[in-house]
Amino acid sequence: MRVISFISQLSLTNVGKSGTNDYYLYFPKRGDEVINAFFTKNHAEEFDVTDKETGDKYSMKVTFPRSGAECRIVKEFAEYVRNKALDAGDEVILEKRFMDGEEPQYFMDYIKYDQRMILRYHNKTNAYYTWHPERFERFLSNESSIQIKDNNVFVAIDINYKEDVFLRSGSTKKTPVYQFEGIEHFYEDRPLKVIILEREEDGTFRMAKPYDWKFHEIDTET
């Protein structure tokens, strides 16, 4: 059996919380080897996906925009996101299995990150914001100074609220931004565009590398 998997980190846009109420999973552009590995018709294609957790079936569809933009997985992907209570920062895994003499099968799984926070750089304020301000406060456990492990060294980072801003011109709600004093330890010239913090069991933190998606391919005897 041959198995390929596509792992994507969800954003607010993917989970219907960017103001558009759209739900979709981004895939690489038309012609990319990853999209070609999953979908061979090179045009809109419907397919059934099995929930690896429950065995439930979801009817999904891949779209191929003419503009050359990224492809999207739509239809009942929205229902899957809602049923799993997925949010920005969580991961979705689409898997395709190839069995000798059988039609390929699609499966979907997910990973929720209660101990992970994603923050993005806000150019105008030289500060960082998160999609989940309330969750961020709980994540810090009322701490304003944290220790981030970098190899075998702990780096002290002071986190301070700066102000509330409109992230987009059409926004109706302001979002708090935070200064990370000491974060310059992790970059040389330009500020980090994305900070991914993960809280360890001992109360310390580590920084994970940001990514949009990952692709894996394995062969197994069973």
At a glance:
The protein contains 3 helices and 15 strands. The chain has 222 residues and is mainly beta.
| Total number of domains | 2
Radius of gyration: 20 Å
Helicity range of the residues? under 10%
- Considering the protein shown, what is the CATH homologous superfamily of the largest domain? DNA-binding pseudobarrel domain
What number is the mean pLDDT? Answer: 88
Please identify, by name, the CATH architecture of the largest domain: Beta Barrel
Low-confidence stretches: none
Distance between the termini: 6 Å
Q: SS-based structural class?
A: mainly beta
Briefly, what CATH class of the largest domain?
Answer: Mainly Beta
- The ordered H/E elements are EEHEEEHEEEEHEEEEEE
Can you describe what's shown?
The structure is a single chain. The protein is mainly beta and 222 residues long. The protein has two domains: 2-112, At1g16640 B3 domain (Beta Barrel), CATH 2.40.330.10; 116-208, no CATH class. 10% of the residues lie in helices and 46% in strands. It is built from three helices and 15 strands. The strands form two sheets. Strands 2-5-4-3-7-6-1-15 form an eight-stranded mixed β-sheet. It has a seven-stranded mixed β-sheet with strand order 9-8-13-14-10-11-12. The longest helix has 8 residues, at 77-84. It is globular, with a radius of gyration of 20 Å. The mean pLDDT is 88.
